TrEMBL record:
GO terms for biological process: angiogenesis; cell-cell adhesion; positive regulation of cell migration involved in sprouting angiogenesis; positive regulation of synapse assembly. This is Sushi repeat-containing protein SRPX2. The keyword Secreted applies. It is found in: Cell surface; Cytoplasm; Secreted; Synapse. It comes from Channa striata (Snakehead murrel).
Length: 451
């Protein structure tokens, strides 16, 4: 603590007229900051430095005999098995204190984990230089290091050993399975109980399935299922069995002349359905589809595709349109008379494109002239006057100028043309907007048919 000084104050009072002088005094203790006089020659300016379980190496600007003089710098280091906590380097300051403190803490290694079916004993616990020896239960043997030593940096030598048994576990697989594929499928769902394994040393075993899980769909043919089991020592045992799936099949169906088939699943397996379809200008006669039975035979009889018969002597437009519903598209072509130049040009292009129209399931209806000489026809077949008038009213087709109306298979007005249309442009529109995916595939297959 800095020294205290006693300060005495004298106060003088002067009394007017009498010339009397009064002296009054009191004492006050005041604390002052004490700044020692710097003395670089004092060999004991700072207290002596010591480090338990360590070593202090000091260097003084005054020489080796001045270990604590002002400006002395000391290096701190710990003995083996100890770790320095604090400053590794300190120096003596003007206030007679060192610039920091430090101490040596005894080092230790982390606690070693227990090993299954074994134990260890240590000479000095988990302190530096302690050695831990490992032993295994009867029936197990050490794999790895037999002992580990705590090093001075706080880490153990070697790696943690394990105790393993030498006898592999035992496992038995279920018997092989056989099953027919499900209807309409090429697979069958097969289930079984997973096998159980035993081991003389371990109660908990790691059983691994190699192959498909039970309760899933297995493909046609032989599917090998294998189970592997490992004990904690990685001794291995295995077993396997076969899951065989058979697909019942019918003889392959032949496509009808002027038609084709679309089949579900694989085409001729049990439960597969094959549907008959006819090319443009032909319609189906007989069953529309057949199913492959469990007996490996098709139900029903074969169907055929016959030329489409259009009854032109119907009495109304709906009766005519019903014959085309979902079968054909209609291109209704109208002109004031047969000599109309637009009609003649369009007629020439239509005749040349007749094959392409059939591939796209398009039928042409012509409406020519005005009453009483008005004519309606589908190729050479003439239409009733009431049918002609009904078509004009339903689709608002004028008699005074050339026009064409394109209808889809549902009888909906899809496009109108007021000038002659080249077949390439007409076909491009139909291919882009009216054909479904199946029709596009069939068109690509037979595109060269018209050449």
């Amino acid at each position: 603590m800095p020294p205290r000084r006693t300060l005495t104050l004298f106060i003088l009072f002067f009394t007017a007229g009498s010339g009397t002088i009064v002296y009054e005094s009191y004492n006050e203790f005041a604390e002052e900051e004490h700044t020692p006089q710097l003395d670089y020659k004092d060999p004991y300016w700072c207290h002596s430095v010591g480090l338990t379980n360590g070593e202090v190496t000091c260097h003084s600007p005054r020489g080796g005999a001045y270990r604590s003089t002002l400006g002395t710098r000391c290096q701190m280091s710990c003995d083996r098995g100890y770790r320095l906590v604090g400053k590794s380097s300190i120096h003596c300051l003007a206030n007679r204190r060192w610039s920091g403190t430090a101490y040596c803490r005894k080092m230790r290694c982390h606690v070693l984990p227990l090993i299954p079916h074994g134990r260890y004993t240590c000479t000095q616990g988990f302190m530096v230089d302690s050695r831990c020896d490992f032993t295994c239960d009867p029936g197990y043997r050490i794999e790895g290091e037999h002992s580990r030593t705590c090093q001075h940096r706080g880490s153990w030598t070697g790696a943690q050993p394990v105790c393993s048994d030498t006898e592999p576990p035992k496992i038995k697989c279920p018997p092989s399975r056989f099953k027919f594929a499900d209807p309409g499928q090429l697979t069958a769902r097969v289930t079984w109980d997973p096998p159980k394994a035993k081991d003389t040393a371990d109660k908990s075993l790691d059983i691994i399935l190699v192959g498909q899980e039970p309760g899933t769909d297995f493909k046609e043919g032989a599917n090998i299922i294998q189970y592997k089991v490992y004990d904690q020592a990685r001794n291995k045992a295995a077993c396997k069995f076969i899951v065989r799936v058979e697909v019942k099949r019918c003889p392959e169906l032949s496509a009808p002349m002027h038609g084709f088939l679309t089949c579900s699943s694989d085409g001729n397996n049990y439960g597969a359905t094959c549907e008959y379809h006819c090319d443009g200008g032909y319609e189906l006669r007989g069953v529309s589809s057949r199913v492959c039975q469990f007996s490996r035979n098709w139900d029903g009889n074969s169907a055929e595709c016959v030329s489409m018969e259009i009854k032109s002597d119907v009495k109304s437009a709906p009766a005519l349109l019903d014959q085309f519903y979902e079968k054909r598209r209609l291109l209704i072509m109208s002109a004031p008379n047969i000599s109309d130049p637009d009609y003649q040009l369009q007629n020439i292009m239509i005749q040349k494109a007749d094959c392409g129209l059939d591939l796209r399931h398009v039928t042409v209806i012509e409406l020519l002239g005005s009453p009483p000489r008005e004519t309606g026809r589908i190729k050479e077949s003439l239409l009733n006057s009431e049918v002609i008038e009904g078509l004009r009213q339903v689709f608002r087709i004028s008699r005074s100028y050339f026009s064409m109306v394109l209808l889809d298979k549902l009888g909906l007005d899809r496009e109108r043309f007021i000038t002659p249309m080249a077949s390439d442009e007409l076909f491009s529109y139909i291919d882009a907007f009216l054909l479904d995916e199946e029709e596009r595939e069939r068109l690509e297959l037979h595109r060269d048919f018209c050449d």
